[in-house]
Design brief:
about 20% strand; about 475 residues; alpha/beta; single chain
Length: about 475
């Protein structure tokens, strides 16, 4: 392996593609059709997996402090050759790892998977013609193809995460990329002039491989820019977006080619959002308090404290927390992209599998209240959350997620100016619930103990579209 390290710092021959893709345009109706599946899905799996996964949060036999072990190269300030020499021998994908991911995602109720084709370390998981620092050259495998085929076998949509940052490429000019991380900003190893334009050519060529060689790609998840380094000057973003859309007309992209709504968000994504910069915003490790009105958005969140696998991180979120995060996000009109960090062999941590199974068990009973729903018409409900869905008969189904089951057996739905047509438990539609209706306050009688400790769902069918007053809120 050490004999091969010299080639890992270089690139295969590459021809610059000077073709300019045609401008992309669509009507609002066409955009809605393109975004439809994603808006309906509400739940996807994020996968952070690369060379860092085999290191498992350990360097030279010692645990590395903090979260974010996909950034371990920066945390330990390792040069590219040293990092590769330690990480590559520990990255040993087992046969069938991708099938395990896809089946786990499907069982959990996820509708799509977004996985890291290349993270900041620069190691590409596909068989790339423009670098030797890739799975094709090092492992003689195309891991992207294996994952894509496994996803499709389970009926899952496919998303590619791609890091705009590259700590390995010799022409990536970190000195220009203010506000973006780099392992060795002041190392003598980095002496000499870097030509960032050449790196951008490389970036465009590698993305072209991803959108050209694997059939339909449903999502492209860029990561990430800063307010000092973004867009055309950083990545030739307008050209890149046009090329991707020309190759994949139906693709959905986030907006991290630009600085708005990246890691350190101001929380004003709905004000900063520019549809020409991407299709959706990506609040990270948080759920916007009031959602993002008028903006397509997706909260990406971890199960513990790290994205990449860390054997030392035991701060796992409870099943209840994960399920309620899904509900909270759906109730605010967003998607939940829940991360797993596989080990170096591709196997999923036992704790992740346990939680995915728990979410799947809940979704097997209540998925109707998540898929294809829109945000709650209520500003606040003291006992839980709500989603809604139009019914074919002209009524609206309000899915009431009860986190705090009322001890007096009375579920109060305030300020709703619609006539109630029906009420029942989603887990048992044959069990009709009595209700009273004074025109504004609805009270549903619950003569049973909570059906589900994580979140029970009561369905309230009302006539017409919800009309909610703001009085008493």
């Amino acid at each position: 392996m050490l004999l091969a390290l010299g080639s890992l710092t270089g690139c295969k021959s590459m021809k610059k593609n000077s073709t300019t893709a045609p401008a992309f345009s669509e009507t609002p109706e066409e955009r809605n059709a393109r975004m439809g599946w994603w808006r309906d899905a509400r739940f996807g799996m994020f996968v952070h997996w690369g060379l860092y996964s085999g290191l498992a949060g350990t360097w030279n036999g010692e645990p590395v402090k903090g979260g974010g072990m996909e950034w371990i190269q920066k945390k330990v300030k390792a040069d590219t050759a040293t990092y590769a020499s330690k990480a590559i021998p520990l990255f040993k994908p087992k046969p069938g790892f991708a099938t395990e991911w896809a089946k786990s995602a499907k069982a959990a109720g996820c509708r799509y998977i977004v996985f890291t084709t290349k993270h900041h370390e620069g190691f590409a998981l596909h068989d790339s013609a423009v670098t030797d620092f890739d799975a094709g050259s090092v492992l003689h495998r195309d891991l992207v193809r294996e994952i894509v085929e496994a996803c499709r076998a389970e009926g899952l949509r496919v998303g590619f995460y791609y890091s705009l940052i590259d700590w390995h490429h010799a022409q990536y000019d970190f000195s220009l990329a203010k506000g973006l991380p780099y392992p060795l900003e002041k190392s003598s190893e980095l002496a000499g002039v870097r030509d960032h334009a050449k790196y951008i050519d490389f970036l465009h060529a590698q993305v072209n491989e991803l959108v050209s060689n694997y059939g339909t790609v449903d999502v492209l998840w860029w990561d990430f820019s800063s307010k000092f380094f973004e867009g055309d000057s950083a990545w030739r973003a307008t050209e890149l977006i046009a090329k991707v859309r020309a190759a994949q007309p139906g693709i959905i992209m986030n907006n991290r080619l630009y600085a708005a709504s990246t890691v350190k968000s101001t929380g004003n994504e709905h004000e900063e959002f520019d549809i020409s910069h991407g299709d959706f915003s990506t609040p990270e490790q948080r759920i916007p308090e009031n959602g993002l009105p008028g903006v397509d958005w997706e909260s990406c969140m971890t199960m513990n404290k790290t994205w990449g696998y860390n054997e030392h991180d035991t701060k796992w979120k409870s099943d209840e927390k994960l399920i309620r995060n899904l509900i909270d996000i759906a109730s605010k009109g967003g998607n939940y992209l829940l991360n797993v960090g596989p080990k170096g062999d591709g196997s999923l941590p036992e704790e992740s599998v346990k939680s995915l199974n728990a979410i799947g068990a809940w979704m097997s009973k209540y998925s109707e209240s998540i898929y294809g729903t829109s945000a709650s018409p209520f500003k606040k409900l003291d006992w839980g959350r709500c989603t809604q869905k139009k019914h074919a008969n002209g009524t609206t189904l309000l899915y009431l997620f009860v986190f705090d089951w009322p001890t007096d057996g009375k579920l109060v739905v305030p300020n709703l100016n619609n006539q109630v047509a029906d009420a029942y438990l989603l887990s048992d539609k044959s069990k009709k619930l009595a209700f009273s209706d004074d025109g504004i306050i609805k009270v549903i009688s619950l003569d049973t103990a909570t059906p589900d400790a994580n979140a029970s769902v009561v369905v309230l069918e009302i006539k017409g579209e919800p009309k909610v007053s703001e009085r008493n809120e």
